[in-house]
Amino acid sequence: MGDGDRGVVGFGGVIVTLWQKDRADRRAELWRRLTRAFEQAAYGGGPAAELGVKAVGVISRSRLATREEAALVVAFLRATLPRRADNERGAR
Q1: 87: domain range?
Q2: Where are the alpha helices (DSSP H) in 44-66?
């Protein structure tokens, strides 16, 4: 392997590393936003909680979310929505 070939391979390694870091950073941001939306949906009141539920739905459709994460979101929404409906009925 000549010097030019090693440079191309090295450059390729740098590109892959940057791509992986970018993806990891974007996934971390996805989870930061999703966690905030979960908290808003579960603990917010009235319109704030409704907005949190909608945000969970939007954020979870990101291409960065895995199938397992989408399943987690579905489980969260199923657990949260009936409880919120009960609380709203009791407040009336």
Answers
A1: 3-91
A2: 47-60
Q: Which residue has the tokens 């009336």?
A: 92
* Tokens standing for residue 16: 């892959």
Write out pLDDT tens, residues 37-82: 999 988 888 898 889 989 998 998 898 899 998 899 889 888 877 6
Per-residue DSSP letter, 64: T
Mean pLDDT of 11-24: 88
Q: How many domains does the chain have?
A: 1
Spatial distance between the Cα atoms of 61 and 55, rounded to a whole number of angstroms: 10
**Which residues 6+ apart lie within 8 Å of 60 measured at CB?**
34, 69, 70, 73
